[in-house]
Amino acid sequence: xxxxxxxxxxxxxxxxxxxxxxxxxxxxxxxxxxxxxxxxxxxxxxxxxxxxxxxxxxxxxxxxxxxxxxxxxxxxxxxxxxxxxxxxxxxxxxxxxxxxxxxxxxxxxxxxxxxxxxxxxxxxxxxxxxxxxxxxxxxxxxxxxxxxxxxxxxxxxxxxxxxxxxxxxxxxxxxxxxxxxxxxxxxxxxxxxxxxxxxxxxxxxxxxxxxxxxxxxxxxxxxx
Length: 224
Ligand code: CA
Prior knowledge:
- It contains eight helices and twelve strands.
- The protein is of the alpha/beta class.
- It folds into two domains: 2-122, 3-Layer(aba) Sandwich (Rossmann fold); 126-218, Orthogonal Bundle (Arc Repressor Mutant, subunit A).
- The protein starts with a strand and ends in a 6-residue tail after the last strand.
């Protein structure tokens, strides 16, 4: 799950990023509207948190461009002015939710969860692979019917592999899918997550194969 924060106040942006990363989301931050439009064009996000008051292109214009490009990504708008006309304007342009500053971080986190839950509900929330089930809404994993503990990064790596069963996935593409822009995630770190996943999954017959010098492949599940 990847979130783009568009906010020009660096301390607010990093505070938001910290809270959301602690909840297991990969987070990218853009300080300018132009940058945000480019990012949303180039990469897939599950949610955009969008400040209205930005230098240069403002948040309303960013929203207009996102929706003009037929982006259906959920957008949570932040604004310093809690006026009815701002709110109506944002919602008219296709925002999914709206919060006025200052807001409480736990409330923002709850709204983020609700928006992501709502958008996942439209796409089918469960991933099943043999004895392994990922409930992407509740963020719970089960192996052979038993709850399975996964760290946020392990979850993210596993989600990438589950999206490409029986296909080779490069380490580089795993890094791109699970790390934010400003994070340096090394191929060695990916090896560590894979090794932890193997420890947890192999006993149930779920195998991740190493493809030397390239990456990994989640094998099709077979009852042996
Ligand atoms: Ca601002």
